[in-house]
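Hi all, long-time lurker, first post. I run a small reading group and we've been trying to get comfortable going from sequence to structure in the token notation. Rather than ask abstract questions, I figured I'd post a concrete chain and ask someone more experienced to write out its structure so we can walk through it together at our next meeting. Sequence below, copied exactly:
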Amino acid sequence: MTAADDFSAVPPFEIRESAEQRVAFVFNSPHSGNHYPERFLALTRLDRTAIRRSEDCFVDELFGAAVPLGAPLLAANFPRAYLDVNREPWELDPRMFAEPVPSFANIRSARVAGGLGTVPKLVGEGLDIYSGRLPLAEAVGRIETVYKPYHDALKRLLTTTHARFGYAVLIDCHSMPASIRIGDTGLRPDFIIGDRFGASATRALTETAISLLISMGYTVAHNKPYAGGFITEHYGRPARGLHALQIEINRGLYMNERTLRKSSGFDALADDLARFSAELMSMPDHNFLDNFQDRPLAAE
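-- Answer (accepted) --
Happy to help. Here is the structure in token form:
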């Protein structure tokens, strides 16, 4: 069996959408997938609980209200431990594979050094996923059959949104460990809003997102320690009418990180995020159009 067989019964990802897209927003949940193929589990050295330590549990559900509000939601079913689409397509650690990686692979990124490349070496708590080296064909298969189709779907959503509304806004949805603290202050943020230090989104979008969450009583950090990954960096082109914002949610707000189950705070947070999404999507068009109207969206 190969990577192509891993998602023969369950699709690797899905697009959840209402009958008509009514807003220029696209939501994306690339790390909430929880379908662990048996073939993959047989390759790992971790049990079924430990392998989930990198998973953004329930994030697709937390933002589910965006769909009836008129925005599509792209959600992964494959787990982050299997493949990370918030990386370059060939961000590979050569020490993981039995054969040499392609010459064009990015083997020197900070993410590869940290064990968190396109095919991750580690899960969130620094645990090795595999006991030995993998065949290079394993990485190639996952990239060709899952990574590339996922990004093709995301590009298609953004391109059609831009064509219809004149601009597109990508909200990239993630979660973070409750242990995250900010610098020397020891502040534990409830949310971190990332816009690649202003490079991936208009200031109005970032400031509105932060102010909405603060008005709901949450503690919000901006860009530190998470400014946005490959998805935010790659798709965020404000000068071309494409804005990308990353949202990190503290898992302590809604789940038990040990049992990986929802906590009593889940429903209240989901309600807040429904209101947050509705108000963010009601921002006037001029916040996104003023600086680039009539410019075509170039393919990336």
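A couple of things your group might point at:
The mean pLDDT is 94.
The radius of gyration is 19 Å.
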